[in-house]
Structures are given as structure tokens and as C-alpha cells.
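Q: Please design a sequence for this.
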């Protein structure tokens, strides 16, 4: 296959070169300045884009008062969200079922709700190293690793482009264009905080550039810091249920006073107990077998009111600190040859926090590790029951280790990137062809420190026979309530967890583009290229965790390498020009051939047609194939745990429960008498990579039209108007993902689906011990959407100049096809909220920006609309939201021409996100909605 790949690459280059040399006497091409626009490697006029591309420049970003690249991109209506600072998932929910780890502190962009793994992020048209957060090996780019001050503009291609760019470009492409030339000094400083006096954020960026004698230099750096916001300080997130004021069954069984589910072999009683009140350190509770909850006993019956509220300890917005440096040097070597070297470094420090560790032991604990087998010996000095707690005499003990403080996770991520681009032009007869050769190396290295964990083996020893707890061992008191676990006990069982991960990218590529020969309607243009890429990554958990002795999320080391060789070719074929109804008609063709060390060889193709009946009207259509190779984490990721919030339909069933659900639950081992009640809402879902995964493939159809009416150009009411309507249809096959744990449990209970039931393991009492849910190639995904974009600019009236930008996306369909015993099961997602792991699929998202500028002052008013969604696993409806942002800016020219000031408020009317019952942490979907509270900011800008 390698020979075939080499032949294909050689054929593409040689045929193209031969065709070009054979037309040396052809007429020169167009005199219009042409550039490479995202979506094609062929140089073209920016006015003749063959695909819908959203342009985001520095001025547009400044009007939104946002300092994070990911926040800007996630506001595009076609964006589905992605990781951002509103995600506080580390120990709270374990590792998401995607092989990439938690991604704590990372920032990602998702387009078309197809996940960030299916969006290709480029920097200056070249790939960027995938992220690292010391919890897995993700396949997505962390946007926090790209220096903000380095960015000149961003181009978002809202359709697939695998034949042009290769793997991952299924949902679209984000191309970040960096600053290559600048004269003088620029600086910005922005500070802000919420109206709750928290979440203080500060952002500072400086750049300097100069040019002389063929040399262009741009250097700069930035510093960003954001303080946390605690869940306790917002009404929506103070309890596990949105806007609740007290605990219910969604609070935790792991309480400071303990929960003890025991079966006394002496009395035959099944007991569900907790302490009446905490005891003194060293004091053993009093257990009265004949009257376990009487006045003489230290215990009472456990009720919902005794559950623990873990929410106040969590962040609703995580802290982040980022330092970045970059430099770019472009040197003209000859009149037609240039060398550009760009280097950058970013250090990101971030943190997540969860409530103190809930220590769960016993057969029904559901840890999936040693703690499920721990016995509490009768000789343990704090065991009040007088008998050994072991299978048959106890099912569960839950004790919240409040003495150890919150679980705290701190990440430090260092990212280096060095890129060299040698480019130039050469003449082929009367034509000019452009070429570039690129080399880049980039590395992400992440370290995470986790405090608040315990060693399960030492817990076993400290709860075991007293005779075996000698030397450094200190017997553990889990029966005395808050304050009775002493520092000596914690020192013996506790440890500081140290995890690391790293990813490296080495990439070499070469491109050639130009005009081959003239056709009656214009020149036949081409682009060809070769690329060789290697990605390496590993995740190394703490040695205690790797040994299976952690009480928190289990993990194993993972390591992998992927190499790929690629060749592509692209043609732009003019068909008609300057004839009635055909001002211009062009076709485009593209093909890419690739050979993966892990996924074998394949190819993708794309064809498009662009028709401009008149200068003011443009129609575009394209068909394309997409390809995504499984990432390192998806292939080589080892087993870990995702603590998904799941409502078990088999819990506490009664006469009101449908007969088929009762019967199916009993078939799965749930007691027929209805005595089983779910202990905790979080269920262990065991997820892992899969070396047998096949690549994802897709087929997409895209149709769009652009109208720029002449009669609105330079008139009394309009300087320019542009209307764009774009339709997208993507069908994804062999989609790589784990199934939804809640869906598996529901299908098993409701239909006794054999495939779903086979993933679920229950204990003798009916508790779900775990759900086996490795990554698989599910049936697929189909999504259809419609984008409508309207841009209007007014003339310069006496009262100033006005502008409007209105971007709207309508989600027409989003259907997942998952395997079931009867074939593929279609799950319609549009207009719903999936719940944990959170993802809303609103049918309509719309952003309207209104600008006004006059002389030295200006203002922007932005409205962001998200339509209502229905929770898929609950009757709750998330009502529509309209967020309003406002900004006022001023340039004090009486002091200096170089400075400007802006003040603004995001979420002006203080709209809370809608409460979500089935969502994970903090009771709202951070993919779709703002964190609660107004955010007010002040920005100073200086240019000289």
C-alpha cells in the first residue's frame, strides 16, 4: 500500500508540473491580488469564496468584551459548545467516555454538535498539537495553548474539508491567522468581575513589530488571570437540584456522620443507620442490638434529610492563569523567496475543586476497586457492632472525609511550538506559481497535583484486624462522625496524587499552487501537496493509582503513536464567464490520499460548483467525503471510570411502575419485593479505548447563496448589505463514541434489550455496580442545519455610522444511530438536552450585533438567543434565553490619538441559565449557557 501511496503522490505532482510546463506561452493570469482562503489551497480573490467562512477579526472580538479565544468561537451560532472555564469536572465525574480524559482547564470548540474531535484547528493553515491536561490523551486542540496576542484574525469554515486538510475536518475548520507584520507598539489591558463581587478577571497583552530591509519582526506576550466563582454563591447551584433550598435524594450518601447499611447476624435485622451526632475523637459509638435507634444508641435511621450537600465546595467558574510569549521573524531571502520562523510558549495553570472525598466501602459501594471488598474487622477499636462487617453482614458504608478538606486538582500545562515556513514564487512561462515548505514541532506537557485522595490498601489495613495494624498504621475511625478522623489517621491513608501527560506533533508539508493554462472562461488553477505527520502521546497516572489502590477515579498508563503520509490535489475549473446569467461559473475538485500507521490507507474526494449569475448574486454547492482516524486516546486509552448521574428505573419500583419494567428489572437481579433503592445518583461507567476501532467516514452536502444587492450599495440608507443562506447536511458513519449510560439503563429496563443489559452489572441487593461502556463505532450520526447571516452597514450620517451583523443557525435534524439487539436505534436530539455528559441541541441559536460609531465614541449592543430545549431524561423544559451585552467606547483625542477606552456589561439583564435536572455539575449546561451573573469590564487599548 505504501508503494501505491507513493505512486499516487508522484503522479499528482508530475502530471501537474508537466501540464504547467506545456503551456509556457499561455496568457498571464488575473491581475487581481489573490490569497489563500480557508477551505482551499488555491489562491483566489477573497470575494470569491467557494465555501461559507465566518471571519472574526480583532475589532469584532474587542466589541464583545471577551478575552478568551474559546469564548469568542463558542458564540458562533453553529457552535455546539466544548470545554471552557465553566467545566469543573475532575474528580466530580471521573473521565468522560471519549478516551481523552477530563481535559481540566482546557478550552475546545465544537461545530454542528459533532464534538470538538471532529473540528480541525489550524494555525496559519498548519496543524496544532492536541491538548494535554494530565488525565488522558485527547484528540482535540486546547485553544488555551495559542497565545491570544499572536492572533490577527480567525476564519471558521462551516463545512467539512477532509480532502483539503485531512483527518478531523468533518464538522468544519477553525484557522487562526497570526500576526506576521506590524509597525510599532500595541497594548491592551482589561479587568472585570461579576456583580456578585467575584470572578475577577484580568488580561494584558502587548505586541511590537518593525520592518526593515526585507526583515519583518513581530514579538509579544500576554498575561491572563481569572478568579474562581463558587457554586455556593449562585442560587442555581447551591444544591444538586437547580434552585433547591434543601437536600433531596440527589444529595450524597457519603456524609460526615456516615451511612451504615448492615445486617446484624445476631438479630437478623437489616439496618440503614447514621449517627445522631458527631462523637469526640477516640470515642466509639454505642450500638444496642435490641434497639438500634433507641435513646441509648448513638444511631438513628438514615433519611433523605441526612444526605450530604456536596455542591457548595464546587467551582461554577474555574480559576485560570496563563502566561504566553511569541515571536515571528520573516526574512526575504531573494526577491521571490521568504523564510518565516514563528515560535510560541504558553504556560497554563488551572484548578478544579470538589467536595471532600466520599469514602465508600462494601459490596454495594460501586467503586470498581479494592474498596468494594474491604471488611471492617470486629477487632477494629472503633467498630461498634461487635462483629466483622463483611459480605453478608454489611452492604455499604459511606463516610465523607471532611477532615481532609476539599479534593483539589491543580494543572500546569506547558506548550511549545516552533514553525518554519519557506515560501516563494517562480515563473512558468508567463505564469507565476507559488510554493511553500513547512516544518513544525510542538509539545504539550501537563502535570496535575491532586490532594484529598486516599490509598485503598492502607484503608483496608486500617479497618482490618487490629493485630495487623502496627508500625506506621493507625486504625481508622469511620464511625465517629465529623472530627474523629485524626491527622495521624489521614497521614497514614492519604497521599498526594501526581499525574502527567504529554503530546508531541512533528509535521512536514509542502504545497504548490498556480494556474495551468487558460480555458475560455479563465485559467485552470491547481494546488497539490504532500504531508508527513507524527503524533505521540502518553498519560502516566500516579503509581498508587496505576496499581489500582486509589479510592478516587481508577486509571492506567496509556501510550501511543500515529504516523501518517498524505498527498492531495485540487483543481478549480472555470466553465463560463461574462455571458448572460453566467457572470461566472466554476467547478472545484479535490482528492486526498493517506496512509495511517493505525488505520490503514484510504482516500477522500470533494466536488463543488460556484455560480454567480450576476455580480451581486452567488450560489454554491458541494459534495464531499470526510475521514477521521481514531486518536491516540481512543485507540490506546486504558480503562477508567466516569461517574455519570443516572436515574435507575429499577429503584424502588411499586404497583405504579409499569409491569414490563418490573419484570425486566427482576430478570436483571433486582429483588422482586421492591426493596432495592438506589444509594447514589452517580453510577460508575467503565470506559476505555478500543484498538479495533475503525475510522469515521462522512458524506456531506452543502448549498449556499450570497446576495449583495446593488440597489442597497452606497445609498442614503445603506452603504452595503449582504445576505447569506447556507444549508448543511452531514451523515457520519462508524461514529466513535461510547453509548449514553442512562440510555443503556433505560433500554434494559424498558425493553430488556440484550446488548444494553449485557453492559450492566448489579450486586446481590440490586445496586448497579458498574456499566461497561468502551468506545465503539456506533451506527452513526446525521445532522442537517441552516445558517442565515445578514450584514448591513449604514452611510456616515450626521448622527454617526450604524452597522448590524445577524447570525442565525437552525438545527433541522440531529439523529444518533446506536446499536440495539434489534438493529440500529435512532435517537433524535434536536430540541433536547441530553443531560450528563451535558449537551443541549437547541433548534435555534441567533446572535445580533448592533454597532454605532461617531467620531471618537461608539457603542455595541449584542443579543444572543437560544431556543428552548426539552430534557431527554426528565419532564423539565429549559426555557429560551436571550442574553444582552452592551459596550461603550471612547477615544480621548484631546489627550492622545493612540489610546481608547471601553466599558461594558455582558449579560446586562442578569439572566440565569435555565435549571437542568439531568445535567451534571452545577445544574446547567455550560456548553450552551452563560454562568450566572452580570460581568462588567473596563478595557484600555494603546497603539503607537
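A: Design:
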Amino acid at each position: 500500500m505504501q508503494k501505491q501511496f507513493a505512486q499516487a503522490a508522484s503522479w499528482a505532482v508530475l502530471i501537474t508540473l508537466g501540464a504547467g510546463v506545456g503551456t509556457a506561452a499561455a496568457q498571464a493570469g488575473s491581475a487581481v491580488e489573490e490569497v489563500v482562503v480557508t477551505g482551499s489551497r488555491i489562491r483566489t480573490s477573497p470575494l470569491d469564496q467557494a465555501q461559507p467562512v465566518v471571519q472574526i477579526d480583532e475589532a469584532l472580538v474587542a466589541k464583545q468584551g471577551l478575552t478568551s479565544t474559546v469564548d469568542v468561537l463558542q458564540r458562533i451560532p453553529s457552535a455546539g459548545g466544548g470545554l471552557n472555564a465553566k467545566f469543573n469536572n475532575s474528580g466530580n465525574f471521573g473521565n468522560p467516555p471519549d478516551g481523552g480524559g477530563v481535559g481540566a482547564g482546557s478550552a475546545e470548540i465544537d461545530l454542528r454538535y459533532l464534538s470538538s474531535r471532529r473540528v480541525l484547528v489550524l494555525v496559519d493553515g498548519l496543524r496544532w498539537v492536541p491538548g494535554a491536561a494530565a488525565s488522558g490523551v485527547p484528540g482535540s486542540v486546547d485553544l488555551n495553548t495559542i497565545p491570544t496576542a499572536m492572533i490577527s484574525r480567525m476564519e471558521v469554515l462551516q463545512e467539512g474539508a477532509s480532502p483539503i486538510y485531512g483527518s478531523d475536518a468533518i464538522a468544519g475548520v477553525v484557522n487562526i491567522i497570526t500576526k506576521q507584520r506590524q509597525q510599532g507598539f500595541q497594548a491592551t489591558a482589561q479587568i472585570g468581575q461579576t456583580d456578585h463581587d467575584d470572578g475577577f478577571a484580568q488580561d494584558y497583552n502587548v505586541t511590537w513589530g518593525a520592518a526593515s530591509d526585507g526583515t519583518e519582526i513581530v514579538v509579544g506576550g500576554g498575561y491572563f488571570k481569572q478568579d474562581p466563582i463558587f457554586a455556593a454563591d449562585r442560587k442555581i447551584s447551591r444544591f444538586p437540584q437547580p434552585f433547591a433550598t434543601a437536600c433531596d435524594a440527589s444529595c450524597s450518601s457519603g456524609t460526615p456522620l456516615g451511612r451504615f447499611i448492615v445486617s446484624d447476624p445476631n438479630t437478623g435485622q437489616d439496618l440503614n443507620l447514621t449517627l445522631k451526632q458527631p462523637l469526640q475523637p477516640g470515642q466509639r459509638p454505642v450500638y444496642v442490638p435490641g434497639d438500634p435507634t433507641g435513646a441509648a444508641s448513638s444511631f438513628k435511621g438514615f433519611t433523605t434529610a441526612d444526605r450530604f450537600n456536596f455542591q457548595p465546595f464546587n467551582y461554577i467558574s474555574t480559576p485560570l492563569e496563563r502566561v504566553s510569549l511569541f515571536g515571528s521573524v520573516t526574512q526575504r531571502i531573494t526577491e521571490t523567496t521568504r523564510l518565516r520562523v514563528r515560535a510560541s510558549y504558553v504556560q497554563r495553570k488551572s484548578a478544579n475543586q470538589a467536595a471532600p472525598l466520599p469514602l465508600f466501602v462494601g459490596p454495594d459501594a460501586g467503586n470498581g476497586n479494592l474498596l468494594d471488598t474491604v471488611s471492617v474487622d470486629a477487632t477494629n477499636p472503633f467498630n461498634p457492632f461487635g462483629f466483622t462487617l463483611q459480605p453478608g453482614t454489611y452492604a455499604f458504608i459511606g463516610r465523607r472525609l471532611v477532615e481532609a478538606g476539599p479534593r483539589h486538582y491543580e494543572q500546569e500545562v506547558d506548550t511549545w511550538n516552533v514553525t518554519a515556513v519557506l515560501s516563494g514564487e517562480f515563473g512558468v512561462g508567463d505564469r507565476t506559481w507559488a510554493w511553500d515548505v513547512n516544518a513544525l514541532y510542538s509539545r504539550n506537557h501537563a502535570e496535575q497535583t491532586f490532594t484529598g485522595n486516599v490509598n485503598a490498601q492502607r484503608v483496608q489495613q486500617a479497618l482490618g484486624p487490629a493485630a495487623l495494624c502496627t508500625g506506621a498504621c493507625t486504625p481508622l475511625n469511620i464511625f465517629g462522625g465529623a472530627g474523629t478522623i485524626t491527622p495521624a489517621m489521614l497521614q497514614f491513608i492519604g497521599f498526594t496524587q501526581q499525574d502527567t501527560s504529554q503530546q508531541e506533533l512533528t509535521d512536514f508539508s509542502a504545497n504548490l499552487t498556480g494556474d495551468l493554462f487558460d480555458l475560455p472562461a479563465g485559467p485552470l488553477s491547481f494546488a497539490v501537496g504532500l504531508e508527513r505527520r507524527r503524533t505521540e502521546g502518553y498519560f502516566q497516572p500516579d503509581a498508587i493509582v496505576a496499581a489500582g489502590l486509589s479510592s478516587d477515579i481508577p486509571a492506567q498508563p496509556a501510550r501511543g503513536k500515529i504516523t501518517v503520509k498524505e498527498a492531495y490535489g485540487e483543481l478549480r475549473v472555470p466553465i463560463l464567464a461574462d455571458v448572460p446569467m453566467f457572470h461566472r461559473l466554476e467547478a472545484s475538485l479535490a482528492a486526498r490520499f493517506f496512509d495511517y500507521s493505525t488505520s490503514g490507507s484510504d482516500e477522500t474526494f470533494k466536488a463543488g460548483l460556484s455560480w454567480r449569475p450576476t455580480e451581486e448574486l452567488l450560489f454554491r454547492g458541494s459534495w464531499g467525503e470526510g475521514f477521521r482516524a481514531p486518536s491516540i486516546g481512543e485507540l490506546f486509552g486504558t480503562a477508567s471510570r466516569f461517574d455519570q448521574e443516572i436515574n435507575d428505573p429499577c429503584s424502588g419500583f411499586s404497583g405504579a411502575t409499569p409491569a414490563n419494567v418490573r419484570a425486566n428489572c427482576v430478570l436483571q437481579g433486582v429483588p422482586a419485593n421492591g426493596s432495592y433503592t438506589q444509594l447514589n445518583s452517580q453510577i460508575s461507567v467503565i470506559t476505555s479505548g478500543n484498538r479495533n476501532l475503525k475510522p469515521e467516514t462522512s458524506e456531506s452536502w452543502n448549498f449556499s447563496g450570497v446576495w449583495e444587492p446593488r440597489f442597497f450599495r452606497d445609498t442614503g440608507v445603506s452603504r452595503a448589505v449582504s445576505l447569506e443562506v447556507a444549508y448543511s447536511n452531514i451523515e457520519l458513519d462508524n461514529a466513535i463514541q461510547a453509548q449514553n449510560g442512562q440510555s443503556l439503563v433505560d433500554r434494559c429496563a424498558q425493553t430488556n434489550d440484550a446488548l444494553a443489559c449485557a453492559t450492566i452489572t448489579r450486586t446481590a441487593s440490586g445496586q448497579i455496580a458498574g456499566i461497561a461502556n468502551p468506545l465503539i463505532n456506533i451506527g452513526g450520526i446525521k445532522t442537517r442545519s441552516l445558517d442565515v447571516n445578514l450584514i448591513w452597514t449604514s452611510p456616515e450620517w450626521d448622527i454617526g455610522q450604524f452597522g448590524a451583523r445577524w447570525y442565525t443557525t437552525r438545527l433541522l435534524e440531529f439523529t444518533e444511530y446506536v446499536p440495539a439487539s434489534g438493529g440500529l436505534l435512532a435517537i433524535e436530539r434536536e430540541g433536547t438536552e441530553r443531560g450528563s455528559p451535558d449537551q443541549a441541541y437547541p433548534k435555534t441559536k441567533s446572535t445580533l450585533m448592533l454597532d454605532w460609531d461617531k467620531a471618537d465614541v461608539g457603542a455595541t449592543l449584542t443579543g444572543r438567543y437560544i431556543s428552548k430545549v426539552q430534557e431527554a431524561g426528565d419532564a423539565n423544559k429549559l426555557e429560551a434565553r436571550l442574553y444582552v451585552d452592551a459596550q461603550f467606547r471612547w477615544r480621548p483625542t484631546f489627550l492622545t490619538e493612540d489610546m481608547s477606552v471601553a466599558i461594558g456589561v455582558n449579560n446586562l439583564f442578569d439572566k440565569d441559565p435555565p435549571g437542568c435536572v439531568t445535567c451534571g455539575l452545577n445544574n446547567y449546561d455550560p456548553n450552551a449557557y452563560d454562568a450566572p451573573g452580570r460581568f462588567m469590564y473596563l478595557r484600555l487599548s494603546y497603539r503607537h
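Q: Thanks. Anything notable?
A: Confidence is low (pLDDT under 50) at residues 1-32. Residues 2-21 form the longest helix (20 residues).
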